[in-house]
């Protein structure tokens, strides 16, 4: 990674203090070094004397003239970049196209043909470039991507993330059974060899995995033989890389897993029995997990990616997020494009909020998630899920500057300003402003995005 410039970000910072609480820090200056790391934070910046500010520069050994200053204006705030803990880059061209399908017919009708078609390098480059740029423009600074079974096309996704500057986990899909002949791994051995090839490529382009990390990706238990799952479990042990897969998304899928793996007492036990359930495992969906399975996930410290838009769109069900949170699981949000129709984690947060009300209507009012809770899942929760909570997801000295600058517009002429459909009148509390952003906001409110201190998106109004 090239070394960037030193930066100073001045204004209001909002981030999660805890699951339930957002912290609003006004009049802050954040000093970000040439590696994108927060070197110092000064509070009450406008009231600080010149000597006090000079002292920070001196302590850091920085010259003022070397520093690029970005100031959030009134009504604007810096927020941690969103973390998409589950997204299929290879399905982006299908976003919104799902008809009335449910999981298994959706896979066969739309998904496998689209993914297979990305073995065409030109098409892959077109789709992958677009999905990276689109998600960045919605504030996604980190994405856990599934690519396809094709090694060259998966490697291309890693190359593009690195060049666009999006932090990413890149998974080559493993699937050696219950898949069409035109889109299937030849054997467990070839699936593992191909996974190793992608790991080698990513390690070659980003040796310390500073921005791009390979992730071992058994598609789901249905499409992997026991031999392949064992091989991938052994590969995880050998490499200590993260793992991503799907779990307990749809009732027919769960039934199929029972039939395919009769020796395992649950879907969760299938992954556990193959060495694939550990602290670095991201389990997407987890809609129908029993409480016993949730307990096992907790014991293994595996993580959950909640994908509410997808779960509604392809009628998978309502995930019991409150129950999983109460049991101590770490949870983030996933767009699951194109099971989900939107590239936006803000949309996923809104859908998580709404789905939690559907769970409440099924019985327990306590299941409702708050605005603060879903924004936690979108940022800090996501950072826990991808194992980077010491670096991203919130702001602090020593952490990396993955951030977005949000504007809700001024009261003057919001339509003219082109800043989306949020109307702020000036009398709202911070809590009210965040609720307005969640429910009325979109990418038009995202003015700029940084990853590791590098400006990766600036909105042209
Ligand atoms: N939502 C979703 N579920 C899956 N299960 C196996 N593959 C997929 C996929 O691509 N999307
Ligand atoms: Zn998925």
SSE blueprint:
Layout: E1 6-16, E2 22-32, E3 38-42, H1 50-60, E4 67-71, E5 76-80, E6 82-88, H2 103-117, H3 121-137, E7 140-146, H4 151-164, E8 167-171, E9 173-174, H5 188-205, E10 212-214, E11 217-218, H6 226-239, E12 243-247, H7 251-260, H8 267-273, E13 281-285, H9 291-300, E14 303-306, H10 308-313, H11 321-326, E15 331-333, H12 345-361, H13 371-385, E16 403-407, H14 414-417, H15 430-440, E17 446-451, E18 454-458
Parallel strand pairs: 1-4, 6-7, 7-8, 8-10, 9-11, 12-13, 13-14, 14-15
Antiparallel strand pairs: 1-2, 2-3, 5-16, 16-17, 17-18
Bound molecules: guanine (GUN) and zinc ion (ZN).
Number of strands: 18
- How many separate domains make up the residues? 2
Would you tell me the overall average pLDDT?
Answer: 96
Q: Report the helical percentage.
A: 25-40%
Strand content: 15-25%
Provide the low-confidence segments as ranges.
none
Count of helix runs = 15
CATH architecture of the largest domain: Alpha-Beta Barrel
List cofactors, ions and other ligands: guanine, zinc ion
Q: Kindly report the name of the CATH homologous superfamily of the largest domain.
A: Metal-dependent hydrolases
Describe this protein's structure.
By secondary structure, the chain is α/β, with parallel strands linked by helices. It folds into 2 domains: 139 residues, Urease, subunit C, domain 1 (Roll), CATH 2.30.40; 304 residues, Metal-dependent hydrolases (TIM Barrel), CATH 3.20.20.140. A hairpin with a 5-residue loop joins strand 1 and strand 2. The chain is globular and about 70 Å long. The two termini are 30 Å apart. The model has no long low-confidence stretch (mean pLDDT 96). Zinc ion binds next to strand 6. Pathway: Purine metabolism; guanine degradation; xanthine from guanine: step 1/1.
């Amino acid at each position: 990674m090239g070394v960037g410039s030193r930066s100073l970000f001045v204004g209001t910072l909002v981030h999660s203090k805890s699951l339930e609480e957002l912290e609003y820090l006004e009049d802050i200056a954040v000093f970000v070094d040439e590696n994108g790391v927060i070197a110092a934070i000064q509070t009450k910046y406008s009231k600080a004397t010149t000597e006090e500010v000079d002292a920070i520069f001196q302590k850091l050994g920085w010259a003022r003239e070397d520093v690029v200053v970005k100031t959030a204006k009134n009504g604007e705030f810096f927020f941690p970049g969103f973390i998409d803990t589950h997204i299929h880059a290879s399905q982006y061209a299908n976003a919104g196209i799902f008809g009335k399908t449910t999981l298994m017919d959706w896979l066969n009708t739309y998904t496998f043909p689209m993914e297979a078609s990305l073995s065409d390098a030109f098409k892959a480059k077109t789709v992958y470039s677009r999905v990276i740029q689109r998600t960045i423009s919605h504030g996604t600074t980190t994405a856990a991507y599934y690519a396809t079974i094709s090694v060259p096309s998966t490697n291309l996704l890693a190359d593009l993330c690195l060049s666009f500057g999006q932090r990413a986990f890149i998974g080559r899909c493993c699937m050696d059974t219950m898949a069409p002949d035109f889109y299937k791994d030849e054997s467990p051995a070839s699936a593992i060899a191909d996974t190793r090839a992608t790991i080698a490529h990513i390690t070659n382009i980003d040796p310390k995995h500073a921005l791009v990390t390979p992730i071992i990706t058994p598609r789901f238990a249905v499409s992997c033989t026991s031999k392949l799952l064992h091989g991938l479990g052994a590969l995880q042990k050998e490499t200590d890389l993260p793992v991503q897969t799907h779990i307990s998304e749809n009732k027919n899928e769960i039934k199929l897993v029972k039939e395919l793996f009769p020796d395992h007492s649950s879907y969760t036990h299938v992954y556990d029995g193959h060495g694939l359930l550990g602290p670095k495992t991201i389990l997407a969906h987890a809609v129908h997990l029993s409480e016993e399975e949730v307990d096992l996930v907790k014991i293994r410290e595996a993580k959950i990616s909640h994908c509410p838009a997808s779960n509604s769109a392809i009628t998978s069900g309502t995930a019991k997020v409150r129950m999983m949170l109460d049991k101590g699981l770490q949870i983030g949000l996933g767009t699951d494009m194109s099971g989900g129709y939107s590239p936006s984690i803000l949309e996923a947060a809104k859908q998580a909020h709404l789905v939690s009300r559907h769970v409440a209507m099924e019985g327990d009012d306590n299941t409702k998630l708050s605005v603060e809770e879903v924004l936690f899942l979108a940022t800090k929760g996501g950072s826990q899920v991808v194992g980077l909570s010491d670096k991203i997801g919130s702001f602090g000295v020593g952490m990396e500057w993955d951030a977005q600058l949000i504007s809700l517009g001024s009261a003057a002429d919001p339509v003219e300003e082109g800043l989306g459909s949020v109307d702020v009148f000036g009398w709202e509390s911070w809590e009210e402003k965040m609720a307005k952003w969640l429910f009325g906001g979109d990418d038009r409110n995202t003015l700029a995005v940084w990853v590791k201190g590098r400006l990766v998106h600036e909105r042209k109004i």
